[in-house]
Amino acid sequence: MSNNFEDLQKQVAELTARVWRLEQAAQANAAPQPRNIPAPPPEAVVATPRPAAKVQARSLETRIGSQLFNRIGIIALLIGMAWFLKFAIDNQWIGPAARVLIGMIAGVGIIAWSERFRSQGYRAFSYSLKALGTGILYLSLWAAYAVFHLVPGTVALLAMVLVTASNAILCWMQNSEVLAFYAAIGGFITPLLLSNGQNHALELFSYLLLLDIAAIIMIALRPWARLLLAAFIGTSFYAIAWYISYYSDRQFALAAFFLVAFFLLFAIAPQLLRNLRLATQTRHLTVQDNVVLIVLPLLNAALAFFEFYALLSEPGRTHARPWIALPLAAFYLIMLRISRLHQLSGTPMALPAVYLAISVIFFTAAIPLELNGLYIAIGWLLEGAALIWMARQQNHRELRFLAVSVLALAFVGVNVIHLGGGQPVLFNGRFATYLVAIVVFAFSAWIALHSPQEWKPIAIGAGIAASVLAMIAVCLEIHSFWVVQTAVHRGDLYIYEQFTYSAWAMVFGAALLGVGFWKKSAFLRWQALALLTLSIAKVFLVDTRQLSQGYRILSFLGLGILLLAVSFAYQRDWLSLRANKP
Fold first, then answer.
1. Which pLDDT belongs to residue 541?
2. What percentage of the chain's residues is helix, strand, coil (to nearest 5)?
């Protein structure tokens, strides 16, 4: 093995000497040099390497000795100190003040000790030690206030704020998001540690507001997404817990003021984080950034809506609840406008899309809050038509998706929200709502048909929805008509009702087929064929058993004549469908 290594070393030395001679020759062509240039000795050119196994052995040995044993030693030392303190406390060697002082010294010492590891490149381990030291400081201050009553609450609060501020300064100086996250956790734990079970709303929310402003300032300096999310979660926790435990109608103004302040802070913060990220040279948003930019605006908007709704649930304020959604929708339209103004070319549009979605959601929610009955479905239909038109004008994919969602909601609403009986057949609000729905879906299908190829599924869905709505609308009126006739004549008119359904299905199918031939639309013709197939199934499976002999004969005669006419039209190919395949 050693002989092979020496041979390889000699070959490398010879190659190096040859390259050196060629370089000297090239320089000699540019400027005359002496011709007899001695070759450098191989020993001067190539340093003799040592086997790599020894280097690797030393590296593994270093890692075991300097890292593994070091960390085990830290853990052992902490365990030993904890047992010593417990033993000393159990034997009354150390009083309350000494215990707190030892905790403070230990916390500061661990934080200072962590800097040694950071300077040696062990950043993660250093941050873990800082978190441990910070936790010891918080617990020591909490014990001094809540357990031993050595200091008043104000002093403990100021001391905890000082610890949080020190961590914030460290994380800014060391550019560490992990430390910022630890500092945020410590800051939000402070009110919980100092809680005495009393209602101090002004002090609590003022402290949280200052803490959130500090987090926003830190976001302006360092684009740390986790810090922003931690601040929102901590603030939301205290707001909800305070409302459940202490809120009364007398505190409405205070709660509303801080609710608006917190809402505005966390509505602006994602935009600030996004602009700061995109202002860098890379103009790159990480996966974590995108998650925060999507989740935080949605959570903030939802929390603001439900909190305002809860605040306005007290007697005397319920009249304002239906109007909560509209200001929020208008606000997010403004945020959408601002976000698009600051949009850089070639950057993702996640945040503007989220603002758009939130605004549409609030507009959609405002309709059932402010209207009732069939007007809810009409409102959704008109909103869906407006959105589909705007999506086509702006060629906006997200807006197109939102428009389809609202139209789907409107379709369900039309078929669920019905007025009671006792109204004239055809001349009633329910039938008028169905007519509006048919017009809206036909308009949407027309818009989609005159749009690019990606709109084709919308055209198909809207066209089918319009036909289904027409079929259901007339069937409901048929049912209402025969219910009235049954009440008047006091007889069982079920047979007549079933025959009318069959007749309507055949007439509507024939009408769709005729329009399909006239407009040369395969889409309409396929709908007609599907409807005729259902008519065939009803005649053979239902009418043969439930209708009387006379109506059974009429059903089969009508269906047979219609099917023969359709078959004859297709066989003769009057519209040259075989040549023109639309």
1. 62
2. 80, 0, 20
